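Explain this fold:

***
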Amino acid sequence: MNTVRHWVVAWALAAVWGVGAWAVAAGGAANKAVRVVEVLLQGDVDEQRAMEMPFGPRQHLLREYTASLRKAAKDESVQGVLLRLNQPAMGMAKVQEFRDALGEVRAAKKRVYCYLEACGNSDYLLACAADRICAPPGGMLLLTGLRAQAMFFKGLLDWAGIQADLLHFGKHKSAAEPFTRDSMSEENRKVLNELLDDFYAQFVSMIAKGRNLPEAKVKETIDNGPYCAKDARIFRLVDDVSYFDQFVQAIGDELGGKVTLVRKYHHLGEQGPDLAEFNLFTLFAALQPRPDIPETDRPKVVILYASGLIVMGEGGLLLGDTITAEGIQKAFRKIRENDTVKAVVLRVDSPGGSALVSDLIWREVERTRKAGKPVVASMSDVAASGGYYIAMGSDAIVAQPATITGSIGVVGGKVVLKGLYDKIGVTKETFTRGRNAGLFSDYAPFSETERKRVEALMADIYNDFVHKAALSRKIPHEKMQELATGRVWSARAAKEVGLVDALGGLREAYDLAVEKAGLKGKDVQPVILPREKSLLEALFAPGSAVAPAIAGVPASQLVPLTRTKGGPLPLLALHALAREHLLALMPYFIEVR
């Protein structure tokens, strides 16, 4: 009996000790700090910025986000990433590049979470790259499918008495159509439908893979959208419906500890005023030239950004993103003169613009390659028309599947304002010497001889574009002629016809440049050009025009017509035509909304 009693007591003590030990262990796990990097995505996500503002929220760049995610993937102190979406403005190719970086986090066996409140199409593609998606009870998933639309101004111009006297080479070169037609031509209707089909197929595929759903089911779900949060969970579009604090707690439960959100990881986070910059010593330092390329002995690969409309001069579209011959030539000259620079990645995000400037930049690419420094083009959301022109001479072209590219063709002409002048009581008297002296007058359309001269100029530029594209891409001239109709392609389709070499993002292009320069396995130093200037450098730069921004007005609000995402391209085209009459410009912008 005593033996039995002893066994019972021993079992009870062991049970109590076991429960106590479990409780201690559970308590320890609950109190363990779990580092989760929080990435807030909102507003425009751009490729580059001219300078950093010391006041207000920091404008984050795509490369900063992706670098942070890749750093988190390798950081042993980080257990996961929490992506918060607040309607970021990103093209589909940038979304794919961001998803690639998130994929590296997951490949490192770290969890990726996403919290969204009001989410659109492109936002949701980012969310689908996460292991777990959460929305608040009042959240909305505005999954509606893709839409493309073109705007036509001929009726407005007719009403205002304005005549667009424009010509184009390439049957699909439709940049003139918004001004010369009141509806889309059948050729371009076909191209736009093919492009939208391609984008939609990619869109559905990314959702299907991310949510582990059949593509047919995804299409049906899209057709029944949009959704409130609880319905989105029923249709397996999100995993949880809870408030942010509850979701963070659930993440902690899953990772086995209390979550510490890291909000200022690497280049991310909000930057407040930095008044330390304003002192006498930094003022004098700002007046001293700083090297764009660091003076080190390490072998370097330069990432040269070319973002925005391609324009003549010094970029005269206010403070907007522009690409100029002078800026790119200066950068390439420094690259060629610096023996430590071994290769270049030309990062292009441009719908084109000036045909002349595009050709001058193409020449710089060729000169750099002949100097023994490989050039790899990396295409962002768009590299079409002049944007493709400046990239096509590279040793290789890398683009995301949804990058818009191609559009090999030329558009030119002028806008005739005589009808408008008549309406508002303005008259002009014109005196000329020479048969074609009135060629670019805004008071009369082209005469027959003037039109022939403009057509001859355009034919010469177009034929040169096609010839150089054929040589650069090693495609027979006859085949290139078939491709050079002015049509745009997704990079996925462009790869099939030889206009693109590989699918991928900036990381893949950089690795390829390293490989082509024979630097694989070596300590390579990446260098970003143009170098981002400090506020004082920008203030004291010749011809500085940053005063409005210093007053607290974001540059993005000062230049609504110059942005390459969602900007009114026809208005950009009119502005560019007033400065230069022959353009290599794509006809429209396409956004995933």
Observations:
- Confidence is low (pLDDT under 50) at residues 1-28, 268-286, 543-567.
- The first helix runs from residue 2 to 31.
